[in-house]
Recover the amino acids of this structure.
């Protein structure tokens, strides 16, 4: 259990084919633990310095530069934390 603030998730599109959500994090904010039910693509709006908390207690630190994207398959489970000292934002597109 942490005292981290929650990120802000703003749903932009939700139709039969895709769900598009913008995530905004103040420094130290987190998504909370979640499991992805769809394949998805993340596009960084800002430089994203992420701490990824993973099942079993593992953690990874990654930096996703602004304007870049990556794809993951459904089933990923984690908590994403803004590990930087500036706000971070990304857009997630889930492929239904």
């Amino acid at each position: 259990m942490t005292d981290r603030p929650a990120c802000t998730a703003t749903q932009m599109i939700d139709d039969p084919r895709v769900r598009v959500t913008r995530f905004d994090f103040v420094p130290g904010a987190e998504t909370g633990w979640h499991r992805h039910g769809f394949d998805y693509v993340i596009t960084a709006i800002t430089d994203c310095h992420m701490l990824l908390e993973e099942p079993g207690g593992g953690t990874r630190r990654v930096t996703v530069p602004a304007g870049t994207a990556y794809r993951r398959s459904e089933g990923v489970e984690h908590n994403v934390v803004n590990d930087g000292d500036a706000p971070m934002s990304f857009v997630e597109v889930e492929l239904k």
Summary: The first strand starts at residue 8 and ends at 14. DSSP finds no helices and nine strands in the chain. The mean pLDDT is 97. Strands lie at 8-14, 18-25, 34-35, 39-44, 48-53, 59-64, 69-72, 77-82, 88-95.
